[in-house]
Amino acid sequence: MPPHVNETEWRAGTRRGAEGFFHVAQRADGRWALLDPEGKPFFLRAVHGVRAPRAAADGDLPADPAARLRAWGFNAAGLGGDGAAGRDDGLPFLAVVDFLGAGPVLAGPGLRLPDVFAPEWAQGTQARAAEVCAPLARDRALIGWVGDAALEWAQPAPDGRPALLQQCLSLEPGFAAYHAAWEFTLALHGGRLDALARAWDTSLANKEVVRARTRAEQPIATRGYLRDDARWTREFARRYFSGASAAVRAADANHLFLGARSLGRAGPQVAAAAVFPTVDIALADWRELPARMANPAQPMVASEVGWAGAEFVRPLAGGRVGRLTALERMLRRARAGLARLERNPAVVGYAWARWEDEPGEQPPFAGGLVHANGAEAREHTELIAQFNARMAG
């Protein structure tokens, strides 16, 4: 745990959230802390997707998820799941508004976002928040709201997938984001398509060329394009977070707003838009967390924690270290990642990515804390229980 700091020594003007509910504040030494409704430090240790177990094949009673969570040192239920396996068992919880349902949705390879430029979305966010957030406005077990739980930002990637700007420029004209993307992009280049083509160092006889390349899964990846894509992504994210937070706060003035959960890395432009005063605490993919506090005014919850991916098991460079088994490499990198998380003064908690293995995953390189047969994933739980005990101490 971080060095002890007198709990009365908080920086003036840093508290976010209402008294008597979960809130966050910055200590005198610069570290951020999440506080429970009684004002006690609460390092969030949650799991996404907690579900009640399936009946055991041998007739034995299945293990209770809430009891398992507490035994492993978790203190909250994350997003998803079935509710009864966390929130209804007395654990504090995160809740999602689901603003994707408030208007048109943009969908494509690696893309799942609301059309934040559509009038229907701007109007629908208020109605959606009133429906979902207002009934829980007095619930002291609620930690805070997340706008959406499954956004995908179509970030530039080496797999040949068109990025966000290219996909928006290729939408059907019925989408407001199509017109907004072309207006935004052309405005950067004097309103002229030929100037845009030169800046992107690519042939653009007309707008349909971009759509044809996108349909053929041919990404534009020049330096000029990537610069404009970053600008567009930041503007898109700014509109999303400002609209979502305004709707949540109009319906519920007591609870924190934690931005949105992204499936896959959202990238630096999205992170740059998920900042106070729009976002109280940012959900951040733990693989993207900086080694040190990147923004002194922005506390974070490290989300998508887990170490079963290829990046955790790839061979290490040279020497004896290079002869470690895949499992040893995975756990070695996991310990290093947890140490970085613990040291970061902006981190006020974390959320494990998945309660249960996904279909087709093979232990010990599966991502759940629980295997498909209900067995405990000890390759994860033993290490994470040790970390949880340390952070609770």
Instruction: Report the sheet with the most strands, covering strand number, pairing sense and barrel closure.
Output: 5 strands, parallel
Radius of gyration in whole Å, from Cα? 22 Å
Percent in helix: 25-40%
How many helices does DSSP assign?
11
Return the CATH architecture of the largest domain. Answer: Alpha-Beta Barrel
Q: Round the mean pLDDT to the nearest integer and report it.
A: 91
User: Which residues form runs of ≥5 with pLDDT under 50?
Assistant: 1-5
- State the end-to-end distance: 7 Å
Strand content: 5-15%
The topology string of helices and strands comes to EEEHEEEEHEEHHHHHEHEEHHEH
Q: Can you identify the CATH class of the largest domain? A: Alpha Beta
Number of beta-strand segments:
13
Shape by Cα distribution: globular
The CATH topology of the largest domain is: TIM Barrel
Strand order of the largest sheet: 4-3-13-12-11
Whole-number count of domains = 2
In CATH, what is the homologous superfamily of the largest domain? Answer: Glycosidases
By secondary-structure content and strand pairing, the structural class works out as alpha/beta
List the defining traits of the structure above.
single chain; 393 residues; TIM Barrel; 2 domains; 3-stranded parallel beta sheet; 11 helices; 13 strands; 13% strand
Task: Outline the fold blueprint.
Layout: E1 23-26, E2 32-35, E3 44-47, H1 65-71, E4 76-77, E5 93-96, E6 105-108, E7 111-114, H2 119-132, E8 142-146, E9 152-153, H3 164-169, H4 176-187, H5 193-200, H6 208-215, H7 223-251, E10 256-257, H8 268-273, E11 282-285, E12 300-305, H9 310-313, H10 326-343, E13 347-352, H11 378-392
Parallel strand pairs: 3-4, 3-13, 5-8, 8-10, 11-12, 12-13
Antiparallel strand pairs: 1-2, 6-7, 7-9
Helix pairs in contact: 2-7, 10-11
